[in-house]
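SEQUENCE-TO-STRUCTURE ENTRY
===========================

Backbone structure tokens: a row of integers, each naming the local backbone shape at its residue.

Task: work out the structure tokens from the sequence, keeping to the layout shown below.
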Amino acid sequence: MKNVRNAVIALTLVVGLGSCGVNQAWILNQNQNSTEVHLGSNNFEVLGQVKGSSTVDYVLIFGGTNRTNLYNEAYAAMLKEADLTSGSRTITNILTEEHVGGFPPFYYTRTLTVSGTVVEFTK
């Protein structure tokens, strides 16, 4: 009986002291462009990193938008920050990260962050 009680206390401590957040990352090739690029010479310059983020809150499993719309909002924010209209630029190495925190199913927050590297072609 004492071993059962100690096991229950240990399990309660592990669950009680554990983190309330979950992280997940996807590395996907989201570019479906048919642009042909020749990288035989140093004809490009890495301009830096850009990122876009979108967050939604849920209460009792009910709440804002679904994951696809959340991704679209974060991706649009990243594209806006990249300013692709001012030159021959593209975004490479796109990374999508998701963080879920809170106390499911009562209340939780889902944050989706999309980041990438902006490259500008010089010739």
User: Anything to note?
Assistant: The chain has one domain: 23-33+41-121. The mean pLDDT is 81. Strands lie at 21-27, 44-59, 62-63, 89-103, 107-121. The longest helix spans residues 2-17.
